[in-house]
Every structure is written in C-alpha cells, then in structure tokens.
Amino acid sequence: MDYNDNLFSEKTRLVANEIDVKYGDNKIIDCLNIEIPTAKITILIGANGCGKSTLLKSMARVLTPSSGSVWLDGKDIHKSNTKQVAKKLGLLPQGPVAPEGLTVKELVSQGRFPHQSLLRQWSSKDETAVNNAMALAKVDIFADLQVDDLSGGQRQRCWVAMAMAQETDIILLDEPTTFLDLKIQVELMDLLSTLAHENGRTLVVVLHELNLAAAYADNLIMIKDGKIVFKGEPNKIFTSDNLKFVFDLNADILIDPSTNRHICIPKYKNATSFSQSTEGAST
Predict the structure, then answer these.
(1) How do residues 59-94 score in pLDDT, each as one tens digit?
(2) Any idea where the domains of the chain sit in the sequence?
(3) Cα separation of 53 and 59, whole Å?
(4) Which of 42, 222, 228, 272 is most buried by a 10 A CB count?
(5) Tens digit of pLDDT for each residue in 257-269?
(6) Is 21 helix (H, G, I), strand (E, B) or coil?
(7) pTM assigned to the model
(8) CB atoms within 10 A of CB 19
C-alpha cells in the first residue's frame, strides 16, 4: 500500500522525503526534505546550479530521485498513474515554446488533455474551464491570435492560463518571470498571488529575482549545494547574513513601510554615493 500517514495531511499534500537526484555521477540534490503548504506560495531561491529546477522537476515527476521519494496525497508520485497525477499537479517549465501557428485558445485548451480519453472527448466543462482560465489570466481578448504574435509577458500569461485550465490544485512554475520587464513580472506575480490566496491553489515557484521572492512568498526556501539551508517566512529568513551565505552577496535589508516586506539592496563595491555625486555637481 502506497499511503503513508506520516507524509500526508490536508496542509501538506506534496512532500519530498530524503531525496537524492543525480545527473550521471553528479549529485544535484542531497538527502532533501520538503513539505509544501497548501493554498500558499512557496518560492525557491538559490545561486545558479544549486538544484532549484532539479528539485521542481523531481516534485513534478519529470526526474526520478536516485533515492528517497516524493509523495502526493500520501502516494509515491513516481509510482502513480500519469494522468491521475496530471489531474492534481501541473508544471510550467522554464522557457516553454508553443508549436508554430497555435492560437491562444488552442494552447490553453491543451491544459485539458489529462481530462480527455477515448470515452470522454471535449465537453462543455472543458470549454468552461478554458474560458475561465483565459479570463482570469486576462488573455481572453487574444483567444484567436497566434501565440507567436504576442509579447513575452502576454505569452507567459497564456502558459499560466494553460496550467490553470488543467484545473489542478497544485502548480509548479520554473522561473516564470525570466526575461520579462519588471512591470510584467509584478503583474504575473499578482496573478499567481490571486491563484493562491483567492482561488486556493498551491504554488511552488522557482525565482531568480530576490525582491520578488521576498515580496510574494508565504514560504521562502533557500537552497545551497542541493540542500535546503533556510526556510520559513521571508521576514524571518531574508537577512543579510543568509543572503551572504547562500549567494555570497553583500547586501543591506530594508523594510518597505507600506507592506512590511524586506527589500534587498546590494552593496556595490565601486559605486559612487549620492552625496558624492551631488557634491561634484554643485562645485
């Protein structure tokens, strides 16, 4: 029997238990444990090559751990039926590319694949799910346009809409804001926040942008060399000392008075101070 009471609860439906993940002989994830809180945004940060994306792929059933296990609703995800997993958990990989000539609605409709079978073809429920997903992601006005003709931010919203149309309770996203302008990054993170906090979805997001991570995470996880080194509420673990340890980054942490969230301000080695620049301008 797959079910394990110790690895499942309504508050933590997705759990990784002592997993190792390797590429060849190179161990990327080292005996890692993680519990993903339900209906919250969990954000993974860490330096390049630390294992963030590898961990996400392992939890999404794309990579199989060399040891340990990943549990979804008390069952080993790597021993579970593919379609059954896809009805509960969706993955938006890094840099997805749509087939040429695909319209927005056709792309979003692909999210309904796990619900199709020889005996169950396209239905009014599928149509409703696709239309609702496009509306929530604010891409319904582009429904008949080709995905290739949209801007980067619009395309990324289409991919998020596809994941939403899948109607899974859990969505994993690998660097969804990469290469987007800051305004578009914020809009996309606002959408993800709505999904979690108003629609009850559980999100796990890999991010590079540290201040976005601190601003939007309910649960922040810092990874170094394939291990979780800090985890918890951003205001407790997003500190200068922790950023120095994880990223070798010298930075000050300020508090945004309007949100009480922490903000990272890097210390630039050769930067000219504002006072120096104004003194030079006045002489």
Answers:
(1) 999 999 999 999 999 999 999 988 889 989 999 998
(2) 5-88+169-282, 100-167
(3) 10
(4) 222
(5) 888 899 999 998 7
(6) strand
(7) 0.88
(8) 24
